[in-house]
Design brief:
Layout (H helix, E strand, L loop, with lengths): L3 E5 L3 H13 L3 E5 L2 H9 L6 E4 L8 H12 L10 E5 L13 E4 L4 H12 L2
Parallel strand pairs: 1-2, 1-3, 3-4, 4-5
Helix pairs in contact: 2-3
Length: 123
């Protein structure tokens, strides 16, 4: 069984590239184009191995997503949250959230991204 990554990014080109690349490396991918959609998918349940998050998005940006995820959603879930990896040109903003497993600056090499994901998912 492959690990499932929730990929939250508003840029359809980046989202599709990351989705294809992750699938090529054996991951299942659930795409979301903003934080609100990502939270809805998490609330639906299902086994997620990792959340890959952009910060700069419309509707609900990554910072607001992290706040709601850690303060409101996590306490209601039956199990632990999957690790969250922030992949953004503004990743320094996520440093207010020590629960974030990794901060990767865009652009990030595919090799470094894959190494981070494999380390956090043991896949």
């Amino acid at each position: 069984m492959s690990a499932t990554v929730l990929l939250i990014d508003d840029d359809p080109v980046i989202r599709e590239l990351h989705e294809m690349w992750l699938k090529d490396h054996g991951y299942d991918v659930i795409p979301a184009d903003n934080g609100a959609q990502g939270l809805a998918l998490i609330r639906q349940g299902g086994a997620l191995a990792l959340i890959l998050l952009d910060l700069q998005m419309p509707r609900m940006n990554g910072i607001e997503f992290l706040r709601v995820l850690f303060e409101e959603v996590a306490p209601t879930l039956p199990g632990p949250l999957p690790p969250v990896v922030v992949l953004s040109s503004a990743s320094q903003l996520a440093k207010d959230f020590p629960q974030v497993a990794a901060l990767l600056e865009k652009p990030c090499s595919p090799r470094r991204l894959l190494e981070t994901i494999r380390k956090l998912t043991s896949a």
